[in-house]
Design goal:
9-stranded mixed sheet, alpha+beta, binds manganese (II) ion, 437 residues, 16 strands, Alpha-Beta Plaits, 32% helix, binds (2S)-amino(hydroxy)ethanoic acid, 2 domains, Aminopeptidase
Length: 437
């Protein structure tokens, strides 16, 4: 990562850069093309880390990058890079630090029955932006890259941000190899079956990012409701994710009086209600979600012996997340004691809230003004790879509106005109950092 830690814009010249024929860039078509990989029965997209749809999508994207002259290259985690080599490659910059590449991109994986824009938009826009810049402005002074990050959602294995965390060195493969998906397949098996991992011919995930820019759909309704074209992300929420296990005693549904039961599912239900009440009590912007629950043995005429539910808590202040978790844990313990149930929990993810790079925020605002696009400085309630990159290199995010704020849903939609607004801002920003103005 950039040793200086401070990102230097390439210059102050604000003369609007002409973007010749930018309207001819076929971003929607490429997004539609990518969404065919993992198209699911719900009309959405399901591409889970290292599964067949994910492998086909990354392979097809690599071929597209090749066609576009972007020299595709995988790393051992399965992150895929396209590169527009800088003329000044390897030269020392004014600060004596070798000019590391400026990288844009987002994640290739999706949630189950997700939409076609979450992650994919930033990947596709990045590929097309490098192709566009090469075509109209030739080689940049500073190398520009686009990365299709292998995994961000945590949809297959109980772990998230694997792509960015393996790049920044935050997480080593050894720390996740034991994890199992819902079919009992280990992470170690899945990465090798997909052709990646330490035994593959690919290079290890590298930390050589000079800066990271992520173009992403908002996944909320702020921009649409306020009527802005671009969201400039000020900071990204922190989050904690858990699995909560409640254990009781399987018993006959007909012969076991209510007061004699140790009903894990009834206990879990009361705990889930407590989650909602504590979050409502804490007030906005705190959010807490239980998205998944399983019960064993999971049959209608047996009192549940065990229930496991997910818990996702988010806020822009760490102390609010911590306090909320403590309040919830207290409520869970009380309910478990009252109903003679066992209680256990496992924390899968804890990422702190983090501000984006101030100088890059101001560059994005300048770029929106050049494009005469209205923008709104706002926090992100969704987690993103950018919050993993920011501690390691200057990082910034650009949002475009989500229709009705819907996301993680086949109905996720962003109008083509909005997609292109974000694309123009990304192109200008990459030009500023790669070519200097
Ligand atoms: O869950 C999130 O915030 C992101 O979409 N992975
Ligand atoms: Mn997502
Ligand atoms: Mn995303």
């Amino acid at each position: 990562m950039n040793e200086s830690g401070v990102y230097r814009s390439s210059g102050t010249n604000n003369a609007p850069l002409p973007l010749p024929n930018v309207e001819q860039v076929e971003l929607q078509a490429m997004l539609d093309w990518l969404s065919t990989y993992g198209a699911d029965a719900q009309g959405g997209v399901t591409r889970l880390l290292y599964d067949s749809a994910w492998c086909e999508a990354q392979g097809a994207l690599a071929a597209k990058m090749q066609e576009k002259g972007l020299s595709p290259e995988f790393d051992q985690s399965g992150n895929l890079y396209g590169t527009l080599k800088g003329e000044g490659e390897g030269e020392e910059s004014a600060t004596g630090v070798e000019e590391l590449p400026v990288v844009t991109g987002s994640h290739m994986d999706t949630v189950v029955y997700g939409g076609k824009y979450d992650g994919a938009y930033g990947v596709v826009a990045g590929v097309l932006a490098l192709e566009y810049l090469q075509k109209h402005f030739g080689a940049p002074k500073r190398t520009l890259q686009v990365v299709s990050l292998c995994e961000e959602e945590g949809s297959r294995f109980p772990f998230a941000y694997w792509g960015s965390r393996s790049i920044t060195g935050m997480t080593a493969l050894e720390a996740v190899e034991h994890l199992k998906d819902q079919d009992g397949v280990t992470f170690a098996q899945a990465i090798r079956d997909a052709g990646f991992g330490p035994d593959s011919a690919y290079r290890p995930a590298a930390k050589n990012y000079g800066a990271f820019i992520e173009l992403h759909i908002e996944q909320g309704q702020v921009l649409e409701r306020l009527g802005h074209s671009i969201g400039v992300v000020s900071d990204i929420v922190g989050q904690k994710r858990f699995s909560i296990t409640v254990s009781g005693e399987a018993n006959h549904a007909g012969t076991t009086p209510m007061s004699w039961r140790k009903d894990a599912l009834a206990g879990a239900a009361e705990m889930i209600t407590a989650v909602r009440n504590i979050a409502l009590e804490a007030g906005e912007p705190l959010v807490a979600t239980v998205g998944r629950i399983t019960a064993d043995p999971g049959v209608g005429n047996v009192v549940a012996a065990r229930a496991v539910f997910s818990l996702d808590i988010r806020h822009i202040r760490q102390e609010s997340i911590d306090r909320c978790w403590q309040d919830m844990l207290q409520a869970f313990s009380r309910i478990a004691a009252e109903q003679q149930l066992g209680l256990d929990w496992e924390e899968h993810l804890s990422v702190t809230p983090i501000p984006m790079n101030a100088e890059m925020i101001s560059d994005i605002q300048d770029t929106c003004e050049q494009e005469q696009l209205s923008y709104w400085l706002m926090p992100s309630g969704a987690g993103h790879d950018s919050q993993i990159f920011q501690p390691a290199c200057p990082t910034a995010m650009i949002f475009v509106p989500s229709q009705d704020g819907i996301s993680h849903n086949p109905l996720e939609y962003t109008a083509e005109a909005d997609l292109m607004h974000g694309f123009r801002v990304l192109v200008r920003l990459l030009y500023k950092y790669g070519y200097g103005s």
